[in-house]
Amino acid sequence: MSKPLFVDVHILQSVPPSNINRDDTGSPKTARFGGATRARVSSQAWKKATRDLFPMYVDSSQLGERTKYAVQLIADRAMELDEDLQEEGALKAAKEVLSKYCEVPSKKKLSFEREDKNKLKTLIFLSQAEIEQLAQCVVGNEQVENLKEKDLTRDALDVAMFGRMVATKPELNVDAAVQVAHAISVGRVETEFDYFTALDDRAPEDNAGAAMIETTEFTSSTLYRYADIDVLHLCENLGSAAVACKGIEAFLRAFVLSMPTGKQNSFANRTLPASIVVELREMQPVSLVNAFEKPVAATAEKSQVERACEELVAQESALDEAFGIVPKEVFVVVASPNASALKEFPNASVTDFDDLVSHVSEACAAYLAESGYPSESGE
Q1: What is residue 112's DSSP assignment?
Q2: Which of 66, 54, 63 is nearest to 258 (CA)?
Q3: Which of 70, 111, 345, 356 fits as disulfide partner to 121, beta carbons 3.0 to 4.6 Å?
Q4: CB burial class (10 A; 0-12, 13-18, 19+) of residue 301?
Q5: Contact present, 217 and 192 (Cβ < 8 Å)
């Protein structure tokens, strides 16, 4: 049995005043870590931002649809297949087909909204193959009973990476091959308030007052971002080494370059990472977040990014020495003069981003070939 291989992604990224991920009161999300309040961006927010960039790197036919409107989605495709099919009949048949596909007889059934009988109460993540085959069932070209014999999620990269749960039919569950951590700031943060006003363009000249007075909350910080990919599990989910490696490339590019869009019009906070470290590890993934258990602060001589890079190098060195769990390969991208300390990262090859993506993909392809998954064409 092959040892598992994990792709660990560590990113340091400074974000100026912003509110890219807020809670139910509109405040920037925070977390307590190491006894200090940190800025936080939820893993869900960054996974959504990553998924939104996938179409830049893979064909849309390889991406699923996560929606409450699956009945309408299937009905629309069915009407494309059969131009004589009317919408009312298509919706009714699509609902029956989807329910039959996602339910176990005499057990829990799919729930639909009272106000919209064709709208699910919960999201469902469907691959394009599932949408196509369910539409074929609607027009009579396929039987739902036959679909269980087919593995219909293997064409959906995002389903394979992030997984899905269908509570009414556990056989349709897909275990995620990618884990994404909540991003947290390397140092302490305090939420600040922006007091602003708006003037009425048509107000009388003798009215100098504001038409609106509001406040919005924001933070600024250097974030530590982390994700890992279980390479073998991703390949098993997709059924193809070539597609898995292409997916790893797409994830690396999309995850590194993405940014959640909260309050972006108010703050224009788009930045790119100061540094990227990608490690190929056997046996288990390892987050380096404990490098920042003690909050990192800028000094008169060094910026917060410089100090954070030094702590990251020290954390990796300490883990290597204490546990002997040395990564197979390490690739480092230094994208800021303040991140030059990462050139001393243990066993690292310093490269640029494009080369990093290529090196990781090639290493994963070699590993999968050794594990019995030759890199057949996945096109």
Answers
A1: B
A2: 54
A3: 111
A4: exposed
A5: yes
**Separation between Cα atoms, residue 57 and residue 270, nearest integer Å:** 20
> Which residues on adjacent β-strands are paired with residue 39?
30
**DSSP characters over 175-234:** --SEEEPPEEESS----EEEEEEE--TT--TT--S-SEEEEEEEEEEEEEEEEEEEHHHH
Rounded-to-integer distance, Cα 251 and Cα 247, Å: 6
Question: What string of pLDDT tens digits covers the 379 residues of the chain?
Answer: 678 999 999 999 999 999 999 999 999 999 999 999 999 999 999 999 999 999 999 999 999 999 999 999 999 999 999 999 999 999 999 999 999 998 866 567 888 888 888 999 889 999 999 999 999 999 988 888 888 767 787 889 999 999 999 988 888 999 999 999 999 999 999 999 999 999 889 888 888 788 899 999 999 999 999 999 999 999 999 999 999 999 999 999 999 999 999 999 999 999 999 999 999 999 899 999 999 999 999 999 999 999 999 999 999 999 999 999 899 999 999 999 999 999 999 999 999 999 999 999 999 999 999 999 876 644 4
Last residue of a domain, one of 109, 136, 155: 155
Task: Write down the pTM of the prediction.
Answer: 0.93
The set of residues, in sequence order, having a beta carbon less than 8 Å from that of 182 and lying 6+ positions away, is 31, 40, 41, 42, 43
For residue 294, give both structure tokens: 């003690």
Could you list the residue range(s) of the whole structural domain that residue 277 is in? 5-50+187-370
Written as six digits, the tokens of 349 are 């090859």
Within 13 Å and on the Cβ side, how many CA atoms surround 10?
27
The residue from 133, 155, 177 where one domain ends is 155
* Residue 219 shares a structural domain with residue 299: yes
What's the angle, vertex CA 372, arms to CA 366 and CA 373, rounded to 5? 65
185: tokens are: 């700031």
What's the half-sphere exposure (Cβ side, CA atoms, 13 Å) at 205?
0
Residue from 325, 226, 346 nearest 282 by CA = 325
Residues 294 and 191 in one domain: yes
